[in-house]
C-alpha cells in the first residue's frame, strides 16, 4: 500500500529549482573534503514525531491528518512501519531512530509488550533488508506510562527500577537485532520535583548502577555500540540530573562511566539549559565526548522544548563547524528530533519539514567547511593566544613556572597591553561566508 501518494522520491535539483518537493542544497553525492554529504551529515528521521505524534498539546487534541489514521492497535503499528519505510525511501535518508513505545503498543503485561515489540522488530528487520535506511539508535520510553511518575532508574520505588531495567535489557537486544549504531538514554523523569521528598544521593547512585548494569549486559550480548546520554535541564521534570553536557560529564567521571558513554546533543535542550547549541557541542568535542546530535531548534520566545525543524542557518553553520572540527560524528548522526507545527497537519508537511532541515544543514556544512578551509577563525584565534607560544606564556603552558616566578615577572612589567576581540568583525565575516556560499 502507498501512504504518501502525492509525493515521489525527493531528488537534488539545485537552488534554482521551483519544485518544493526537491532538495535545493542537500546533494547526497556531493563530495566535501573526500566524503559525500550523505556520509558526513548522516541524517535520521525520528519515528515518534513523524509517525506517532498526533499534534496534541496541553490545550487541545491532535490535528494531524495521517494516511494510517484508520488503523488500531497492532494493525496501526504495522501500518506505521510500512509508511515509515516509504518515507525513508522517498526522502533517501540513511538512518532512523525510535523509542520502544513508538513502534509497538504496550501490552497489559511486560510479556505482552515484549511480544508486540518482537512482532514489529521482525517486520522492521524485513524492511531493512531491501532499504538503505539503517537504525541510528533506539531507546526505551521511560516517561509516558504512569509507573514513571517518580522516575525510572531514579524512582523511589525499586519495582520501577527493576521494570525499567527489563525495558532497557530488551532495548539492547533490539539494538543488537537491528544492527543499531548507538543506544540512547534520555532521562526525562530522572530528576526531582522537590528536594523535600528526595534522596538525591541515592537517586544518582542508582542511576549510575543502572548504567553499569546496562554496560555489563551489552558486553554479555556482544553489543559494541556507543551509549549516549542526552542531556536536558528540565521538562517534563522540574530538574533533570543530566542538566547539560558539563553536568553529565561530571556524573560520568564520578561513576567511572566515561569509557562507555558519549553525548547525544539536542539543540533545543542546549537553549533550555541557558547555552547555545554550539556551546554544548564544543564542551562535548573538547572532551572527546561528542556522540550524536538531535537536530532541531527552539523558539527564543518560548521556554519549552518546541522541537522545531532546524532552519536557522547561522545555527546550522556553527553546529557544523563544531562537528567538522570534531572530525565528523563517527557513528552518530543528525537525527531530526523535530515535529511539524500543529497547523502543518497535512502528510505532505512531513516532507517539506525534512527537506527544510536537510537543506539547512547542507548549507551549514558548506559554510563551515569553507570557514575551516580558509582558517577564518583559526588564524584569528591562533594570533589571539600567541602570548602562550613564547616567553612567560610558554612557561605557563609547559608547567615550567610557579606563583613566585610569575610575581617576579609581573613586578617587572611596565605596561600590560590587550588587543580587541573583534567580535563584530568576526560575525560579519561569518555572514559574508554564509551569503557567498548560498549565492553560489
Ligand atoms: C525529549 C527528548 C527525546 C529523546 C529520546 O525532549 O529529546 O525525544 O531524544 O528519548
Ligand atoms: Ni531528543
Ligand atoms: Ni527534546
What spatial order of strands do you see in the largest sheet?
3-4-5-6-8-10-11-12
Structure annotation, total helices: 16
Sheet bearing the most strands, described? 8 strands, parallel, barrel
Alpha-beta classification = alpha/beta
- Structural shape: globular
Straight-line distance between termini: 41 Å
Compute the gyration radius: what is it? Answer: 24 Å
Strand tally = 12
- What small molecules does this complex bind? D-xylose, nickel (II) ion
Q: What integer is the average pLDDT? A: 98
Written as H for each helix and E for each strand, in order along the chain, the element string is EEHEHHEHHEHEEHEEHEHHEHEHHHHH
Helix content range: 40-55%
Percent of sequence in beta strands: 5-15%
Low-confidence stretches: none
Amino acid at each position: 500500500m502507498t501512504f504518501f501518494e502525492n509525493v515521489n522520491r525527493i531528488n537534488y535539483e539545485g537552488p534554482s529549482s521551483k519544485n518544493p518537493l526537491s532538495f535545493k542544497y542537500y546533494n547526497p553525492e556531493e563530495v566535501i573534503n573526500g566524503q559525500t554529504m550523505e556520509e558526513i551529515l548522516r541524517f535520521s528521521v525520528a519515528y515518534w514525531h513523524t509517525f506517532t505524534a498526533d499534534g496534541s498539546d496541553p490545550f487541545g487534541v491532535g490535528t494531524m491528518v495521517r494516511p494510517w489514521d484508520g488503523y488500531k492497535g497492532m494493525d496501526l503499528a504495522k501500518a506505521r512501519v510500512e509508511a515509515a519505510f516509504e518515507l525513508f525511501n522517498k526522502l533517501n535518508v540513511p538512518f532512523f531512530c525510535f523509542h520502544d513505545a513508538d513502534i509497538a503498543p504496550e501490552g497489559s503485561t511486560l510479556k505482552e509488550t515484549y511480544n508486540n515489540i518482537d512482532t514489529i522488530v521482525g517486520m522492521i528487520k524485513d524492511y531493512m533488508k531491501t532499504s538503505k535506511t539503517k537504525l541510528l539508535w533506539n531507546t526505551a520510553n521511560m516517561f509516558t506510562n504512569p509507573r514513571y511518575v517518580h522516575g525510572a532508574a531514579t524512582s523511589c520505588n525499586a519495582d520501577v527500577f527493576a521494570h525499567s531495567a527489563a525495558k532497557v535489557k530488551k532495548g539492547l537486544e533490539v539494538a543488537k537485532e537491528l544492527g543499531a549504531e548507538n543506544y540512547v538514554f534520555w532521562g526525562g523523569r530522572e530528576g526531582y520535583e522537590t528536594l523535600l521528598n528526595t534522596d538525591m544521593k541515592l537517586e544518582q547512585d542508582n542511576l549510575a548502577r543502572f548504567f553499569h548494569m546496562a554496560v555489563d549486559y551489552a558486553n554479555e550480548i556482544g553489543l559494541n555500540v556507543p551509549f549516549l546520554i542526552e542531556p536536558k535541564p528540565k521538562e517534563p521534570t522540574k530538574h533533570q540530573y543530566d542538566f547539560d553536557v558539563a553536568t553529565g560529564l561530571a556524573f560520568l567521571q564520578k561513576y567511572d562511566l566515561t569509557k562507555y558513554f558519549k553525548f547525544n546533543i539536542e539543540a533545543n535542550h542546549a537553549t533550555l539549559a541557558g547555552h547555545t547549541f554550539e556551546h554544548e557541542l564544543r564542551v562535548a568535542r573538547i572532551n572527546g565526548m561528542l556522540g550524536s546530535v538531535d537536530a532541531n531548534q527552539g523558539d527564543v520566545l518560548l521556554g519549552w522544548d518546541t522541537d522545531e525543524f532546524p532552519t536557522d542557518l547561522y545555527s546550522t553553520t556553527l553546529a557544523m563547524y563544531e562537528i567538522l572540527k570534531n572530525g565528523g560524528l563517527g557513528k552518530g548522526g543528525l537525527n531530526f528530533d523535530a515535529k511539524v507545527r500543529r497547523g502543518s497537519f497535512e502528510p505532505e508537511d512531513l516532507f517539506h519539514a525534512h527537506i527544510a532541515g536537510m537543506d539547512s544543514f547542507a548549507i551549514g556544512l558548506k559554510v563551515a567547511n569553507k570557514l575551516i578551509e580558509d582558517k577564518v577563525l583559526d588564524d584569528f584565534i591562533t594570533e589571539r593566544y600567541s602570548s602562550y607560544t613564547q616567553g612567560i606564556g610558554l612557561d605557563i603552558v609547559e608547567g615550567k613556572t610557579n606563583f613566585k616566578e610569575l610575581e617576579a615577572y609581573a613586578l617587572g612589567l611596565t605596561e600590560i597591553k590587550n588587543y580587541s576581540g573583534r567580535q563584530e568583525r568576526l560575525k560579519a565575516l561569518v555572514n559574508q561566508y554564509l551569503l557567498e556560499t548560498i549565492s553560489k
